[in-house]
Amino acid sequence: PRPHLAQRPRDSAARQRGYKLLLRCLWVCHWYSLDGAEVEDVGIYRLAVAMRKNSTLQNLSLEDCYIDYNGGFAVANAVTGNVSLKTLNLNNNAVQDAGATAFGAALSQNSVLEALQ
To answer: In this structure, what DSSP letter does residue 64 have?
Structure first.
């Protein structure tokens, strides 16, 4: 099992480089998977901002990324402004009922997204 986030050492410089690399990758990729990565709150918010502005990413998988309901809200908000994302996989995350409701509202405002798992 993975250690809890509070038990893991943090290297903010390395994380910053990682976030920047991730955001650059999202701009050139049509399909991206972060399955199993522990995307912390700051990471999911940065990802959400990038998703909202991105016009090339078509498929994104965030399965088992430890996304809680706050992260779910951020991703749902990003979905409302994204014009290219066709599939989004959020399986095995903890977005809870409130996050699911936010996705329901986001889907009503997005005509491109075909599949939300």
So the answer is: T
HSE (side-chain half, CA atoms, 13 Å) at 111: 0
Hey, CA dihedral for 89, 95, 97, 101, is it positive or negative? negative
Can you give the pLDDT at residue 65?
A: 84
The order of strands in the sheet holding 115-116 is: 31-33, 59-61, 87-89, 115-116
**Which among 102, 98, 15 is positioned nearest to 88, based on CA atoms?**
102
Name beta bridge partners: 54.
none
The helix (run of H) or strand (run of E) holding residue 59 is strand 59-61
> Residues of the chain whose pLDDT is less than 70?
1-32
Fill in the amino acid letter for 109: Q
Q: What is the pTM of this model?
A: 0.73
| Type of residue numbered 44 | I
Expressed in angstroms, the distance from the first to the final Cα of the chain is 24
